[in-house]
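Morning run. Coffee first, then this:
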Amino acid sequence: MRVAKLQLNGFKRFTNTMISGLPTTARLVVLAGPNGVGKSSLFDGFRTWQTAHGVSSSIGWDESYGLKVGTPAISWPNHIQLDFHEGEPTDTLAQQRSVYIRTAFRNEADFNISTFSRLPSPLAAPRVGRLVDADISVSENYQRMVMLTLDSVFDSVVPDSTSKGELRDRLIGSVATALRQVFPDLELTGVGAIGAGSEQQGSFYFRKGASDGFLYKNLSAGEKATFDLLLDIVVKREYFNDTIWCIDEPEVHLNTRVQATLLQVILELLPDSCQLWLASHSIGFMKAAWDLAQADPSKVVFIDLDGHNFDESVVVEPVVADRAFWARTLDVALGDLATLLAPSEVVLCEGRPPSNERDTTAEFDAACYRRIFATTHPNVDFLSVGNSADVSTDRLEVGRAIQTITTGTKITRVRDRDDLNADEVQQLQRDNVRVLSRRHIEAFLLDDEVLRKLCEQLENPGAIDDVLAIKRRAIAEAPSRGIDEDNMKKFAGGIYVELRKRLAIRGGGSTWQAFAKTTLAPLITPELAVFAELERDIFGA
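And here it is:
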């Protein structure tokens, strides 16, 4: 099912509000905005509409909860109008499965089931009637999974040759796979206390590292929150397979990195005929939704509830996730931290950008600059964006992207001098590109001051003359190898090999780049003339 329009009249905090313009292609709808704008109340509207259509006799209209104070009382089914692209469901089954809701209060710290009884269908008995209700589901879903497995034993469709392992996979396989996608080191291994006299507890069992067979109650809060959502979807998706799924604050207890993966897994688990609505002010879920929108804009919709006066008649339509939207999102999620975490200045420099998170050989220049200026310029970050031409033109538009997301960040471009003549340097400076006074950063890293300090740090001052001689010899031999004398990048590796031998360096790094980043760069400190020269090149006089 896909929502086309939602109208709320005198309901909760809405006087007369219409959510419209939702495309039939939308698979994910994200409700954005700060606390108190009405994200959860929209989900209350879904539940009220469903209840008004007779889904459950146990849930009725609570005027003290649903009626907006100060608005006239009307027949409670008239408070909510919900239109679907497929048309209004008419039969009882379609109405029952039209909406499924998880509230923000999803916390079941521990359980131990000792007796089993058949539970009513979740279609006929919604677990929560309001978004303020506690949403306890893990123990219920434990019982449902066990009963479904027992049913399959006596199901004529299941072959008698079905193995114990196959039955176990039917019980926990999908949940275990989904959980492993979010937490690769956490494995759901089974359920306990199914048979009479079992010594196990009636709960879920897990494996993590060397710990095997520990109980659900020992999971972390974030692991429990994730397991709860995934388990509930796996169990309920067969019932609610043409449904508007609503999850309020899915980020509860979860760090930002986990949120993105969890959203992907949830969408994979839900049937294609379902539409997922999330109420969130979390950067993790917002960014993950934005990434999905970049891949297919037709499938993701953002509804921003911020900035509207819901005491008046309001029409809210999907928004484009532009700079203004992200500025509001960051402000909601981080508050004052949004400006605290943003660097005051970003320096774009040479060096290969990383291809992935584990690309340790990339960003050589940026890594060195960060170490050198970490103390004196703590609010500055450095990014390697490519070769000298990439820096000069900002070909990758990194600077523009940063300023789009983070207002007020200064962008500085710094490139190596290389073989530039004076006229070329002046032209680049007119184009607001700073140029190093030396050929490249290696010339600073291998400065005589730095090498002297290296010997002193290693408590080997007697080796200073030999170390400087190693550098002079490499420079003198460079022309015979077709290398310019000042092109230290070409022979820095050879110098490192000789330094390692002369100074008996152990654990300095397997490459010149590793040695330079971790050992030499930290030696360039404010008391050195080479530091002052490099600082002047990058930040000006």
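The chain has 20 helices and 16 strands. Good start to the day.
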